[in-house]
Structure formats: C-alpha cells, structure tokens
C-alpha cells in the first residue's frame, strides 16, 4: 500500500483532553491548525518539531477549550487567518458564551477573519475543507470535511465521538438538533470516513452509524446482515 500523502498530528490539551489537529501535506511547510486548545505552547512545540507554519486556524465551535490557543497563535503569526462558524462568532469575545467564565478562567479570543457557512470551502496549505453546519452542541458548530485521495476525513469537533456525542446541556445546546445534524449531515458520508473528534480517539462514520448508543442506526438505515 502506498504511503499516505496526508499528515495529521494531534495535540491533546488538559484539563479537558481536547484534541487540536494539525493537517498538512508531507513535503510542504504549511499546515492547517484546527481548534487550538488550552496548551498552545504544546501546539507551538509540535509545529516547530514538524517544521510547519500554520496557514490558517479553523475552529469547529467557540467553546473555551477549542479556542483558548487562538491568541497565542495569532501573537506568533499576526497575519494568520482565523475562521469559525457564523453562529458561534459571538463566543470569541464573550467569556460567558464561550464558557471560560463558568470554569473560572475568563478569556477572549482574537476576532474572526472569516465566518463560515454551510457549503463554504476553506482552501489552505494545499487542502480543501468543506463546511457542514452541525449545530446541537452549540448553535454555530460546524464540521469540516476533507476529501483526499479517495478517503473522506471529518473534523467533527464536539458533535460525534467514538461511542458518544457532544454535550447538549449548555445554553445553546439541544439534543434533537444534534441528532438531526448527525443523521442528516454526518451519516450521509461514506462508512469508511474517518472522524476526528474534539475529544477522544478517532472513529468512522460506519462504526458510529451502526453502534453508537445515542444516535446509531437511524430510521431507514439497514444494518449489515
């Protein structure tokens, strides 16, 4: 089997074990940073280790553990574009909405340079991420879909986890909306699509469609066998 021409590195930030993802094409010196977490210095160390310079920051949503590193990234690279779903943009500047106030460490993020809507394409570092609106965990949550060499990759933030789903008890969360986002958006993707969640290990769309105890086997889906 030929070696993959897509690089994906994960930096896990405490205390919420949040996943920051670095997507890049081997041989290039730029990358896309998705959801910079609460330990930005670890992200910077990983970028230095890999010899990469970020071309953009993409945020799946505006909760504190997924935007906490934005400031450090923009300080290091002032011209670095920052993109987030249109509906979650207010969270960047509001500690109450981004939940940092609730956890006792109020902060804000630099403002967005780009607001994302359903169907937008983010083209950075030689990669093209298609935007899906996937609300439910937060009102403006988006998922990012990358097609590369016949393989689908989904950066799903806090929508779908291995064997679980994102919380819906935050002020703008809603379980019915989250379930619809998963069934109508994510579960339409190929079974072998790799899901990179905001917390925990990777999974696949097929695995979660069949076995996820919260949202698996939606109406109309026939289980194998």
Question: Care to describe what's here?
Answer:
- This protein has 225 residues and is of the alpha/beta class.
- The chain has one domain: 4-Layer Sandwich (Metallo-beta-lactamase, Chain A).
- The chain is built from 5 helices and 14 strands.
- Strands 1-2-3-4-5-6 form a 6-stranded mixed β-sheet. Strands 7-8-9-10-13-14 form a 6-stranded mixed β-sheet.
- It starts with 6 loop residues before the first strand and ends in a 14-residue tail after the last helix.
- The model has no long low-confidence stretch (mean pLDDT 94).
- GO terms for molecular function: hydrolase activity; metal ion binding.
- It is an enzyme of class 3 (hydrolase).
- This is Putative metallo-hydrolase.
- Its EC number is 3.-.-.-.
- Its cofactor is Zn(2+).
Radius of gyration: 17 Å
Percent range for β-strand residues: 25-35%
What is the total domain count?
1
Strand-pairing-aware structural class: alpha/beta
- How many individual β-strands? 14
Give me the CATH superfamily.
Answer: Ribonuclease Z/Hydroxyacylglutathione hydrolase-like
* End-to-end C-alpha gap: 29 Å
The biggest beta sheet is recorded as: 6 strands, mixed
Spatial strand order of the main sheet: 1-2-3-4-5-6
Unreliable stretches (pLDDT < 50, length at least 5) are none
CATH top-level class: Alpha Beta
**Element-by-element helix/strand order:** EEEHEHHEEEEEEEEHEEH
